[in-house]
Amino acid sequence: MEILLSKLNTFGNALPGDITQGLIWGVLAIGVYLTYKILDFADLTVDGSLGLGGVTAVVLITNGVPVPVAMIIAFLAGCCAGLVTALLNTMLGIPGILAGILTQLALYSVYLDINGKANAPISVDKFPLVISSRYVTAGNEVMDIIRTVGTALIFVVLIVAALYWFFGTEYGMAIRATGCNSAMSKAEGINTKRTTIITLSLSNGLVGLSGALLAQYQGFADVNMGRGAIVIGLAAVIIGMVLGEVILRKHFNFVGKLAFTALGAIIYFVVLRIVMLIGLSTDNTKLFSAVIVALFLAVPYLQKNAKTSFRKAGKRSLLGESTEPQPVLSAASGSDDKEDK
């Protein structure tokens, strides 16, 4: 009983940090949603652009650049990474997955060129950081915890609002049309290459912004901080989509999908915390992430198969009823009826 209470206490103390971290990764997940769900583009640049945004922000802040300006530049650095992937795909004809891998590989060297070493530390004691994990640990004032979680939430809300407005414009509709049917969009006069470039740039810009927030939150940027980021992003997207469809059903609109994507990231980190408290080693977190993504990716397929099976069973039962032999009056009974008449 004491062990259970101790674990519950540990979970409660870690919950604000998990929520904050989930919101920060939710910004990345929204970027992944733009390419994976809207554009239907498998973009692996994410693993590189997260670290790029993080190191860009840290190096600029430590060199005296104001934090908001450093974060804007980190966003633009992520946009540049997405632009490279988009140009490799649209201008050189390289498949999307390979284009993302090539850019991701190159960004490893770019990170080292920017920072000169694998790790770039930053301290909230020396710089006025936007967010820090120090204020969501046990023993801090309640207002500090609320302020930290609220800061991450404000970023998510503003991003969701901006994207909701943008994808409601004519150009945003063109991007959505490109993802739905690229060939038909071309026939309608939409420049699908341009929409691909814009979406990939915007997506990786959000990932770069997420990296800038994450670096400030954890107090450092690392060359490997983006390793496996695409898996966490996909997990958040898939969890959010499944939950949104179950909870909102027909009312699951575009803004709901963006919001539930961020919520999916929070749920991912909360579930990860629970599994770690149960006894899973931190060395297995990537394995756990892969299993979560595989399970939630399989849910729509299993649901579809289940519905199809029920339909087939229903059709078989109807056909069985319609083909049952009907009672036929015999000739003798017919003659008897006539005689009675």
Domain tally: 1
Structural class: mainly alpha
Biggest pleated-sheet summary = 2 strands, antiparallel
- Count all strands and give the number: 2
- The helix/strand series, from N terminus to C terminus, equals HHHHEHHHHEHHHH
Taking pLDDT < 50 over at least 5 consecutive residues as the criterion, the unreliable ranges are 329-341
Q: Can you name the CATH architecture?
A: Orthogonal Bundle
- Give the helix proportion (percent range): over 70%
Average pLDDT works out at: 85
Measured by DSSP, the beta-strand proportion falls in under 5%
Taken from the alpha-carbon principal axes, the silhouette is: globular
Q: Please state the CA-atom Rg, rounded to the nearest Å.
A: 27 Å
Short key terms for the protein model shown above:
341 residues, 2% strand, 12 helices, two-stranded antiparallel sheet, 76% helix, mainly alpha, ABC transporter involved in vitamin B12 uptake, BtuC
Structure write-up:
This protein has 341 residues and is mainly alpha-helical. It has a single domain, classed as ABC transporter involved in vitamin B12 uptake, BtuC. The protein is 76% helix and 2% strand. The chain is built from 12 helices and 2 strands. The chain has helices at residues 2-38, 46-62, 67-90, 96-115, 142-166, 170-180, 182-187, 192-218, 229-247, 254-278, 285-322, 331-340, and strands spanning 119-121, 220-222. It starts with a helix and ends with a helix. Mean pLDDT is 85; it is low at 329-341.
